Amino acid sequence: MSWKQGLDCYTDSIKVKISEKYKPPLRINLPMTYAQRLVLNKQTQDSNLYYEFGLENSVLDQIKAWRGSRHQMLQERKIKLEKARDEIKECLQQIEQKTGNSTINTKNIESSSDNAVYQSMNHHSNILTPIPLSCTKNQVTMEVKDKNINISDFENDTYSPFDNMELKSINDIEELAQIWGQSWKLF
Questions:
Q1: What is the mean pLDDT of residues 159-178?
Q2: Which UniProt key words apply to this protein (predicted)?
Q3: Which of 63, 107, 117, 133 is deepest in the core (most CB within 10 A)?
Q4: Spatial separation of the C-alpha atoms in residues 177 and 171, rounded to whole Å
């Protein structure tokens, strides 16, 4: 018999009560609402402190880059347009010198080329523009007045699907009355 077994057998039947002064103190707990608020506040503070605005900053940088490239493209187109105007003016001056006619109007050429540049820049701006109808109101009203519609054709039509079902149900009741005999009464 071992030493451990010998000690266990002497104390097994003895009940031991620990004094109150040797027990650990009760744990202090906050009410549930305060505990939840503390946990929630800690989570919000932790999430706010460590959030980085990398994505937002990269999007803003990309927008600035796109605006800059659009502005640069617009400037390049204006420069090309001015060069084209100068070339057209030189050609017109050469033609005028050769022929002596000054009937060609350069203002129309300049305004049409301006419109072409701005339309090519804003090709997406005309997606939702309304398109006016080609026919006038007078043509539409005249077509309606020319057709002869007889309203009496529609007034005499009294057919209803409910009437048809009512007739079928009456016929079914009469047939059942004939099958079951005179003891069965009609409703």
A1: 74
A2: Coiled coil
A3: 117
A4: 10
Q: Read off the pLDDT of residues 36-56 as tens digits, 9 standing for 90 and up.
A: 887 777 777 666 666 788 999
pTM of structure: 0.30
DSSP readout, the chain?
--HHHHHHHHHTT------GGGSPPPPP---HHHHHHHHHHHHHHHHHHT---HHHHHHHHHHHHHHHHHHHHHHHHHHHHHHHHHHHHHHHHHHHHHH------HHHHHHHHHHHHHHHHTTTTTTT-----SS-HHHHHHHHHHS---THHHHS----HHHHHHHHHHHHHHHHHHHH-TTSPP-
**Token couple for 130:** 């309304």
Q: Do residues 95 and 104 make contact, with C-beta atoms less than 8 angstroms apart?
A: yes
Structure token digits, residue 162:
């409910």
Per-residue burial over 76-93, b if 16 or more Cβ lie within 10 Å, else e, is: eeeeeeeeeeeeeeeeee
77/119 Cα distance (integer angstroms) = 12
Q: CA triplet 166, 169, 172: central angle to 5 degrees? A: 155
Tokens of 28: 């202090």
CA distance 97 to 89: 12
